[in-house]
Amino acid sequence: MKKTFPILGVLTAVLLIYALYQGLVVAPTERTMGDVQRIFYYHVPSAWTAFILFFINFGASVVYLIKRNPAADIVALVCAEVGVVFCTVVLITGPIWARPVWGIWWTWDMRLTSTLVLWLIYVSYLFLRRFSSGGQTPTLAAALAVLGALCVPFVYFSIWFFRTQHPQPVMGGGGSIDPRMLHALLINWLAFSCFAFLVCWSRYRLEKLQREVDQAHAMQSLLDPSGSVR
Amino acid sequence: MTAPTGITRVTLLKDLRLEWRSKDAINSMLFFSLLVVIVFSFSFDPTAEESRQIAGGLIWVAFLFAAVVALNQTWARELRNQVLDAYRVSPAPANSLFIAKTLGNFILVSVLEALMTPLFIVLYRLRALGPVWQLLLVAVLGTWALVVNGTFFAAMSIRTRSREIMLPLLLFPISLPALLAMVWATTAILNGEGARVWMALLVSYDLVFTTVCLLLFETVLNAE
Amino acid sequence: MNGNPYLFAAYAVTWIIHIAYLGTIVRRYTRLRGEIEQLKKPGVRSSGNSD
Fold first, then answer.
1. How many domains does chain A have?
2. A134 with A218: CB under 8 angstroms?
3. Residue B176 to residue A117, Cβ atoms within 8 A
4. Is residue A16 part of a domain?
């Protein structure tokens, strides 16, 4: 293992603990929702991180389509997977927040619904990667990623417009935010971004190793003359 | 310019002729569409007033299922006869094939919809309060949205494992904004309200996705 | 700190998900490391592996 990884790991852990402290202790208690509102400091940074990862997936997919660079393909896969993980966190912390505040687990609230559709699109991307066979996977996946990314503005607009026609209370509230809350939010976002980077890096290395092993297997079955019947 | 359109026309006519001759496929799809309408009628039994509120959703979900069934089988025939490999090595532009397939699917799905709609009207005692031509426009735009993506994803799925399930897995999430627009435009028009924004959304969705599918189809066809 | 169970649940679930995912990465990595050591040994037949 390279030396930078453990160092970054420790720094990230420290940052995450500091962010936790900011979110739970330093940030003031919200007037209407109380302490439950502190879920916000995990829910929102996870969402922002997921969106950034999906955006990188789009970029990497375009690069792959143009250059057929295997590294770009791995980056695309990694960002989609880690993005889905963060998106799952958003979709679970959202209802956990909604329940005590609004009394219901789910509401077709604009943000939650858009996040759900995004999650569906990228999960379908992961299914395509799993179900398609070796050589074509990177190209097919890249094409799907481009379509998925182009769909995103439509997702947001259609759900926003639907909500203006069928209004419902917005979760998470609008309005101005206390600077100490904003500070806690940004620290958490920074911490989670560093964490996401490390997770992506680990997943990248895993994927490279997986491909090495697959190639080694392929080489062996080619070179093995004593006819191992498959 | 004549060569690509010529190829498109030839391919399209071939597909339509094949569909017409192999009555099995189209008959089973028609029957399936009928079954879908009836199952929905059994499951949802609204009053005439309520039905105007939910008909948009019911109809488009039924159309979606019928479209998936139609889309799944249109590429299967090509694959069986290794026609795709022939296309890949021929100098014909891949786009011609894509347009031909999409148009063929569009016609097929529209036929299914044309048969399902009177059934829905009768079973749900539907009466549109808004202009019918708008409903037709939404039908055309919405069907195109489903079919253009569906044809593209069907081409992707045929070389995957579990190809029948891959098509809806890929198609449904990306179609959600268009589906929202189709359903609520239809509901709005049935209730005599304006659907301009939804229709604009459908038009832009169709334009964007048709363009991108055309741009990427050759890549997908030749992916190896 | 506070006694709000939903707040605790949300933070706990977040870390459970992240740790579970990291766990799968670590598990697959150690298994693959083992495999590649095996493959590097001369004259060892590879056992057909698919993931």
1. 1
2. no
3. yes
4. yes
| DSSP secondary structure of B26-88 | HHHHHHHHHHHHHHHHHH----HHHHHHHHHHHHHHHHHHHHHHHHHHHHHHHHHTTHHHHHH
Residue C30 has pLDDT above 90, yes or no: yes
Exposed, middle or buried by CB within 10 Å (0-12, 13-18, 19+), for A74? buried
Low-confidence ranges of chain A (pLDDT < 70): 1, 169-176, 225-230
Q: Tens of pLDDT along B102-147?
A: 999 999 899 989 988 998 888 888 888 889 999 999 999 999 999 9
Domain assignment present for A79: yes
Instruction: Look at residue A139 and tell me if it is in a domain.
Output: yes
From C35's Cα to the closest Cα of chain A, the distance in A is 7
Question: Can you give the pTM of this predicted structure?
Answer: 0.90
Q: For A122-126, which contacts have Cβ atoms below 8 Å and span 24 or more sequence positions?
A: A122/A54, A122/A57, A122/A80, A122/A83, A122/A84, A122/A87, A122/A148, A123/A84, A123/B173, A124/A148, A124/B169, A124/B170, A124/B172, A124/B173, A124/B174, A125/A57, A125/A80, A126/A80, A126/A81, A126/A84
Task: List all residues of chain B from 138 to 157 with a beta carbon under 8 Å from chain A.
Answer: 149, 152, 156
Q: If you average pLDDT over residues B155-171, what whole number do you get?
A: 87
Structural domain for A65, as ranges: 12-28+36-168+177-217
**pLDDT of the residue at B1:** 45
A:181-210 residues touching chain C, CB 8 A cutoff? 195, 199, 202-203, 205-206, 209-210
In this prediction the ipTM stands at: 0.89
Q: What is the pLDDT of residues A30-42, one digit of tens each?
A: 878 788 888 999 9
Give residue C50's pLDDT.
Answer: 45
- Reading the block at residue A214, the tokens are 């697959």
pLDDT at A209: 93
Q: Which residue of B has its CA nearest to A164?
A: B197
Which is higher by pLDDT, A172 or B43?
B43
In a domain, A148, yes or no: yes
DSSP letter for each residue of B159-208: TBSSHHHHHHHHHHHHHHHHHHHHHHHHHHHHTT---HHHHHHHHHHHHH
Count of A–C CB contacts within 8 Å? Answer: 88
Query: Which residues between 27 and 46 in chain A have a beta carbon less than 8 angstroms from any beta carbon of chain C?
Result: 34-36, 38-39, 42-43, 46
**Residue from the list B170, B176, B198 with its beta carbon closest to the beta carbon of A128:** B170
The shortest CB-CB distance from A99 to any of C6, C11, C45 is to C6
